[in-house]
């Protein structure tokens, strides 16, 4: 190749951008490989399991039976992936990897419109080196999709400020509406950006400004309307996007809130993911998802009326935490996963450096269109303040902070050049710029580097070990679950959820004495009384004391707030002891509280069978299959009654899907015996 041609090629932006993207791709593929070999390869956290389940339903063509609880768009994204690549969430991770590369390209294209090309290339390299971007690509969470959509929307908005076009307004509205469907709190930045573009345009052409705003809003409404319609068809109540806003607002401000994520009850949230049980206790079993959402908004209202000063102080505390460089976990924990993934332990670009430079750049960025980044980031920050601080929320605006850091460093270099030329005396703008930037940068650096006491709850490995123990239990590895939970308790002996999970694993291993000993250590802890009574009764029964178990369940069921599951468990025990009258009474009480409680349906069917009424038993089981949320046990019982081998196979499959390994093993054993 001639020397001048090689020289021109090396000066081509596209070559260097392609090389950076190829390096980023290689990095991500190495990360996936290391992840597959570690304990988190097949681990799905609580929220990830929700999206996995909902994605499977979408791929199977099942429409939502209730309004969307969390990110509607991400559920469709996961479902589309499963439709194309059935049976594996690794396909989702690969698709998110490609989305991540798209985000990097958009970061470069946006920076190229605000900075000289070599500076823009430096911004691209910085984005490729920020660990949270590629870390979240490995998780079944909407963060990566949100990051891509926000970056795309900002790129389009910067172009709109520099070169206004009517069709682009509609595209901006559609993209930010999709972002809001991926992450509900992005609705506020979308509105703020629309108003910002409108008022900027209003100064020059009022009619054109109104037309652009109308197109932006109209496109957003067109995108959001189908989701709102689906929610309305699933429920009479009006639900715009999803029904988790009230819960998250309460979680961020509940008694004892620290500004970080904490479930309303750490012992029940995994089993009551939509936080329905507390609403049922006050409003009744027929409460709708929209009413549950309203219930939690009401709980927040009570907190506000009781002590508004505390809520305001919490918001200020959260503001400082958002500016801190620590990657606060929610369920996923970057620092813990880095222990088993070597690539994550490398010294990547840190938020400790990125936050001060990025925020300063968004404040002082003066290039035409740069204010777009600041408007979106500020509106997003304000929208998150009422909730809680977590890395998965903050990563959404990470590309904007990276571009902002490039803007600030570029401007700082410009200031240094002016100072060398005696600019301090000649330029009032330079003097005021440095006078205002210096204290801001000092404050941001202090906020980023300080070590808030709240992080110590996550500094140990207890949360990570507890997560791995829960995952091991879900796949039937009970001994492994016990090992992880004991490691969690070794790190944090007072961690009640880990001890309760340990009890559950010990019961699965039929180590009833050890389970009772651990339950004794939980006496006096703030735990869900239903779950504690259920586990205690299981341990007592395993030790051969059915009457003690009966007393434990009866005492718990005497409380007015007792849930349907415990009442059904009491009914099942009465039936085993031969008391069909009490069994029927408590099963009926359970179904009155929750018609979807499977054990109650099963008890009523067995009562009918004990009275030699086989047809009635079959009828009750079929009714249960139509109403119950967990159907493995019902399918197994019905298959036995009807001598249906195909039904036994379906029960085994359903048992595996639900994590009901008892039904799974019983169904497979029955099939093997028939062969």
Question: Brief overview, please?
Answer:
This protein is an all-alpha fold and 675 residues long. Helices cover 73% and strands 0% of the residues. It contains 36 helices and no strands.
Please outline the helices and strands.
Layout: H1 3-10, H2 13-37, H3 46-59, H4 72-84, H5 90-114, H6 117-128, H7 131-136, H8 143-162, H9 166-182, H10 187-202, H11 206-234, H12 245-253, H13 277-283, H14 289-306, H15 308-322, H16 334-338, H17 351-364, H18 371-384, H19 391-394, H20 398-420, H21 423-426, H22 428-449, H23 456-459, H24 462-474, H25 478-491, H26 496-508, H27 512-521, H28 529-542, H29 546-557, H30 564-576, H31 580-593, H32 598-610, H33 614-627, H34 632-642, H35 645-658, H36 661-674
Helix pairs in contact: 2-5, 2-6, 3-4, 5-6, 5-8, 5-20, 6-20, 8-9, 9-10, 9-11, 10-11, 10-18, 12-14, 14-15, 17-20, 17-22, 24-25, 24-26, 25-26, 26-27, 26-28, 27-28, 28-29, 29-30, 30-31, 30-32, 31-32, 32-33, 33-34, 34-35, 35-36
The total count of helices amounts to 36
Q: Which percent bin holds the helix content?
A: over 70%
What is the SS-derived class?
Answer: mainly alpha
Q: Runs with pLDDT <50, length 5+? A: none
Average pLDDT for all residues: 85
Find the count of extended strands (DSSP E, 2+ residues). 0
Main beta-sheet annotation: none
Query: How far is the N terminus from the C terminus?
Result: 72 Å
Explained architecture:
There is one protein chain. The chain has 675 residues and is mostly helical. The chain has a domain at 3-240 and 343-449. The chain contains 36 helices and no strands. Helix 6 crosses helix 20, helix 26 (496-508) packs antiparallel against helix 27 (512-521) and helix 35 (645-658) runs antiparallel to helix 36. The chain is elongated, with a radius of gyration of 28 Å. It starts with a helix and ends with a helix.
């Amino acid at each position: 190749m001639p020397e001048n041609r090689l020289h021109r090629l090396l000066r081509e932006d596209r070559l260097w951008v392609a090389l950076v993207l190829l390096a980023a791709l290689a990095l991500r593929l190495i990360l996936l490989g290391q992840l597959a070999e570690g304990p988190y390869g097949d681990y799905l956290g609580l929220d990830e399991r929700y999206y996995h389940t909902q994605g499977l339903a979408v791929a199977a063509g099942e429409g939502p039976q209730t309004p969307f609880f969390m990110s509607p768009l991400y559920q469709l994204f996961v479902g589309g992936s499963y439709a194309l690549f059935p049976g594996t969430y690794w396909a989702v991770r690969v698709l998110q990897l490609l989305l991540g590369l798209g985000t990097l390209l958009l970061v470069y294209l946006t920076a190229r419109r605000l900075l000289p090309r070599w500076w823009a290339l430096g911004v691209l390299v910085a984005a490729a080196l920020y660990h949270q971007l590629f870390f979240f690509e490995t998780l079944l969470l909407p963060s990566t999709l949100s990051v891509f959509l926000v970056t795309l929307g900002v790129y389009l908005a910067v172009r709109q400020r520099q070169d206004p076009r009517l069709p682009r307004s509609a595209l901006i509205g559609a993209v930010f509406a999709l972002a809001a469907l991926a992450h509900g709190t992005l609705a506020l930045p979308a509105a703020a950006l629309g108003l910002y573009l409108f008022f900027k345009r209003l100064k020059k052409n009022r009619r054109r400004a109104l037309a652009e705003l109308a197109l932006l809003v109209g496109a957003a409404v067109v995108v959001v309307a189908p989701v709102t319609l689906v929610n309305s068809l699933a429920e009479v109540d009006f639900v715009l996007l999803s029904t988790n806003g009230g819960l998250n607002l309460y979680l961020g401000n509940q008694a004892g809130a620290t500004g970080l994520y904490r479930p309303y009850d750490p012992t029940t949230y995994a089993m009551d993911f939509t936080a329905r049980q507390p609403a049922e206790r006050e409003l009744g079993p027929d409460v709708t998802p929209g009413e549950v959402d309203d219930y939690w908004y009401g709980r927040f209202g009570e907190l506000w009326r009781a002590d508004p000063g505390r809520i305001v102080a919490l918001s200020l505390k959260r503001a400082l935490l958002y500016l801190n460089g620590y990657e606060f976990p929610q369920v996923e924990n970057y620092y813990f996963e880095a222990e088993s993934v070597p690539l994550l332990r490398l010294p990547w670009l840190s938020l400790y450096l990125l936050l001060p430079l990025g925020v300063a750049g968004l404040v002082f960025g003066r290039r035409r269109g740069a204010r777009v980044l600041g408007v979106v980031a500020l509106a997003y920050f304000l929208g998150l303040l009422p909730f809680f601080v977590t890395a998965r929320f903050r990563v959404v605006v990470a590309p904007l902070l990276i571009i902002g850091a490039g803007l600030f460093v570029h401007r700082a270099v410009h200031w240094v050049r002016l100072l060398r030329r005696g600019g301090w005396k000649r330029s009032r703008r330079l003097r005021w710029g440095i006078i205002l930037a210096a204290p801001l940068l000092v404050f941001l650096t202090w906020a980023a580097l300080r070590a808030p006491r709240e992080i110590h709850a996550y500094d140990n490995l207890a949360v990570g070990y507890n997560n791995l123990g829960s995952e091991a239990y879900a796949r039937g590895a009970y001994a492994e679950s016990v090992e992880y939970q004991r490691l969690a308790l070794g790190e944090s002996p007072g961690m009640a959820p880990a001890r309760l999970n340990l009890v559950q694993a010990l019961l699965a291993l039929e180590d009833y004495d050890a389970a009772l000993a651990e339950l004794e250590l939980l006496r006096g802890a703030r735990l869900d009384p239903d779950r504690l009574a259920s586990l205690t009764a299981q341990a007592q029964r395993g030790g051969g004391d059915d009457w003690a178990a009966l007393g434990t369940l009866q005492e718990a069921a005497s409380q007015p707030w007792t849930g349907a599951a415990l009442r059904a468990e009491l009914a099942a025990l009465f039936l085993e002891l031969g008391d069909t009258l009490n069994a029927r009474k408590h099963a009926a009480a359970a179904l009155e509280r929750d018609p979807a409680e499977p054990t109650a349906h099963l008890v009523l069917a067995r009562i009918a069978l004990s009275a030699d009424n086989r047809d009635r038993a079959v009828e009750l089981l079929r009714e249960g299959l139509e109403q119950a949320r967990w159907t493995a046990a019902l399918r197994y019982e019905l298959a036995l009654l009807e001598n249906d081998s195909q039904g036994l196979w379906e029960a085994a499959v359903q048992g595996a899907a639900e994590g009901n390994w008892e039904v799974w093993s019983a169904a497979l054993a029955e099939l093997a015996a028939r062969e």
